[in-house]
Design a protein that fits this description.
The structure is a homodimer of 344-residue chains. Chain A has 344 residues and is α/β, with parallel strands linked by helices. Chain A has 3 domains: 55 residues, Orthogonal Bundle (434 Repressor (Amino-terminal Domain)), CATH 1.10.260; 132 residues, Rossmann fold; 128 residues, Response regulator (Rossmann fold). Helices cover 39% and strands 19% of the residues of chain A. Chain A contains 11 helices and 12 strands. Chain A has a 6-stranded parallel sheet with strand order 2-1-3-4-5-11, covered by helices on one side. Chain A has a 6-stranded mixed sheet with strand order 7-6-8-9-10-12, with helices on both faces. The first copy, chain A, is elongated, with a radius of gyration of 27 Å. The first copy, chain A, starts with 10 loop residues before the first helix and ends in a 5-residue tail after the last strand. Chain A binds a DNA duplex (30 and 30 nucleotides) through helix 2 and helix 4.
Chain lengths: 344, 344
DNA sequence: GCTTGAAACTAAAACGATTTAGCATTTCGA
DNA sequence: TCGAAATGCTAAATCGTTTTAGTTTCAAGC
């Protein structure tokens, strides 16, 4: 063996190794050897070589060769991080799919997929820079590093950024500051005085803005800043832990704003564990990014991006960019929707 | 215009239309016209033609041409339906990614993506049959139609089926019947007598098996079949509605098995609305397919696939198939894990 | 008048697979 | 013994794009 640093093995490599033509190898690989009458012995030799050399087909070549030249194939991607919860993209995904279905015809097919990158390492995503993976993408859940990378790069295809503001990109995001302000107003309206904002340690643009606007509004109306409780991550357990510590230390809290619903879910647990009642002892406002906010006990009052509207905007923008290339970058603001349930 | 049923436009089409070579078009498309000194007027003409003809680049060709021949690119996919909740695949996804990362080196890159198909229409997924999209896939959340399609087809690449049993495929699934039996045992152990099983109208293989095994066990021990409550879909709201109707009709229930956690979440709401307490009045057992079963109130007792184990098995199998092609199909059973929380 | 250089392009190869048409042999039937 | 049919393979084109290595034209410099 010892074929250390060769180039990857192709059908040619195998053909040479066995002493046949690439055509024969291809025939065997696609299990067509019966109808094309290859000798059983040859088939076996080729199969053995394929296994021995560890052949992996080149998808791009295969796709280029086998596609029907009459139909255009358009690849759409939703790019998110491994670290972010997947449901955050599901609305956008479904909306893109719906619009793609509406535009599908015998000469035009779409595939919509979710591409994943490690948070902060968008730049390493294969094929992003040379436009060799997608005809258009929606990028979301980026970290500041990724934002910086995008800002410094002009991607030569359709890109819509979801939930962030990045210069020279088509961006769709909630109206800046609006969520935090409305959340504060709801809690202020129920005559609370001990305000707390629960955030993850690592803030994205939206979560940072929510927290900032909330604090600004509370300060403006009460003269005092809310207490800030910081969860180590964005999962419920860390939210629970952080708030539990806050309450256990005897620090006051009768109005809580959680900048994501996962954290709110954790907060619910901490509040129950501390024998307080929602909303009697502590009013809670969340964001509405969780599919099941309605099934929280009590149902969670939310101020947050109108997800359906955002999804629609983002998908519409993507298809718009796809058809009219080189349109001016636009920043679309979607005002938050307020769903008053029981928790505040 | 009126170029109705032509073939899709390529760089050649544009080149001919403008009266330049494909090379010039390509140069403009990749924004390299400055360094390659194309005349500004030509650039503009090409740009205009690109827009006018509605050019869409062929991703496969671009990728084939631009990839570094020294590195092998391996495309892995997790195939699920638009209809199924995305979080069902997140564990498998993360595990595949982890193993891919471990196998990544300068000559070997992976991309892991989620491919979506419409439930029951897996056969229509572009590139599935001719192996021109993925080097290996994990297929999950299939409906019977999809299963039939798979059973009738020999896909010429690495395929692992998650949560189903399909002849001639590498399948990973929970030990058949085990979940339902254990769930029944838990409820029987707390001396209940009015058993109810909550299922969606459209049963998948696993949900059907859970329900069947649950009923069989209850019948065997009590001589009576559990009542069957059927939700119109798998979302919490439909579970709530179905159980609410059951309770409102005055029909008995002191032990509930919900075959998915989404339905359990809905059931919780119906039970609260009916002024019953969990587990005092009604004991509930769920499946553990929801990320937040621990944050239900009260926390949900679950019997279900040990998701981490399943994810590990499924990812390991995929990479195994990828390296040793043509291994015998195997059916891997993962025994359910039981997490006793508060609800039963 | 001849070289040099810049400007503005093009021809052709290459990426890796699949498939069509066809070329040698061998076998078989009459 | 000859032609036809079957057997077992290969050559070469092709998919659409990018890039390298030119080529041609014109202006400037000597």
């Amino acid at each position: 063996m010892a074929r250390g640093d060769q180039r990857p093995v192709t059908v040619h490599t195998i053909a040479k190794h066995v002493g046949v033509s690439p055509a024969a190898v291809s025939t065997v690989l696609s299990n067509r050897h019966e109808e094309r009458r290859l000798a059983a012995a040859t088939v076996e030799k080729i199969r053995a070589a394929v296994r021995e050399l560890g052949y992996v087909p080149n998808i791009a070549a295969r796709r280029l060769r086998t596609h029907d030249p009459e139909v255009r194939h358009i690849d759409l991607g939703i790019l998110t991080t491994f670290e972010a919860p997947l449901f955050l993209v599901s609305r956008a995904l479904r909306q893109v799919q719906r619009m793609a279905d509406a535009r599908t015809d015998p000469k035009r097919k779409f595939s919509v997929s979710i591409g994943m990158f490690h948070a902060g390492r968008l730049r390493e995503m294969p094929g992003l820079l040379n436009a060799s993976r997608f005809n258009g993408v929606i990028v979301t859940n980026t970290l500041p590093d990724d934002d910086a990378f995008l800002a410094a790069t002009a991607l030569p295809y359709a890109v819509v950024v979801l939930g962030r503001r990045i210069p020279n990109y088509f961006c769709v995001l909630e109206t800046p500051g609006e969520s935090g302000r409305r959340a504060a107003e709801i809690l202020l309206a129920s005559h609370r005085s001990q305000f707390v904002v629960l955030t993850p340690a690592l803030l994205t643009q939206s979560t940072a803005e929510r927290a900032a606007a909330f604090c600004a509004t509370v300060r403006e109306r009460t003269g005092r800043d809310p207490a800030r409780v910081i969860a180590s991550s964005f999962v419920p357990a860390s939210g629970a832990e952080a708030l539990r510590a806050h309450l256990a230390a005897g620090r006051p809290c009768d109005a809580l704003y959680a900048v994501t619903d996962s954290l709110a879910l954790g907060a619910y647990q901490a509040i129950r564990d501390g024998n307080r009642r929602i909303p009697r002892d502590i009013a809670v406002v969340g964001v509405g990014d969780h599919e099941h906010a309605d099934f929280f006990d009590p149902p969670l009052t939310c101020v947050g991006p109108a997800n359906d509207t955002v999804a629609e905007q983002v998908a519409t923008s993507l298809f718009h960019l796809l058809s009219h290339r080189r349109v001016k970058p636009v920043e679309l603001h979607v005002p938050p929707s307020v769903v008053m349930r029981v928790s505040a």
